[in-house]
Amino acid sequence: LAPKLGHGVTVISESGINTYGQVRELSHFANGFLIGSALMAHNDLNAAVRRVLLGENKVCGLTRAQDAWAYSYTARYF
């Protein structure tokens, strides 16, 4: 239905969003997402938010302290 709405209408996807892939797929149609239950199911809320918004990111070969520090603040390219 979202493509049938006029310009200037804010579309929010309301439920069932659990993964980064779902956010990416629906971002073509929605301006925002309600993802509370997907986040609250995890003990580490910060990590859960990052996982949904940024996806899984495997970082190998961090050998310098400054790179590990940058990674801890969500930097993705070194």
UniProtKB/TrEMBL annotation:
One of its GO terms (molecular function) is indole-3-glycerol-phosphate synthase activity. Pfam families: IGPS. One of its GO terms (biological process) is L-tryptophan biosynthetic process. Residues 1-51 form the Indole-3-glycerol phosphate synthase domain. InterPro entries: Aldolase_TIM, Indole-3-glycerol_P_synth_dom, RibuloseP-bd_barrel. It is an enzyme of class 4 (lyase). Pathway: Amino-acid biosynthesis; L-tryptophan biosynthesis; L-tryptophan from chorismate: step 4/5. Keywords: Amino-acid biosynthesis, Aromatic amino acid biosynthesis, Lyase, Tryptophan biosynthesis. It catalyses: 1-(2-carboxyphenylamino)-1-deoxy-D-ribulose 5-phosphate + H(+) = (1S,2R)-1-C-(indol-3-yl)glycerol 3-phosphate + CO2 + H2O. The keyword Lyase applies. Its EC number is 4.1.1.48. This is indole-3-glycerol-phosphate synthase.
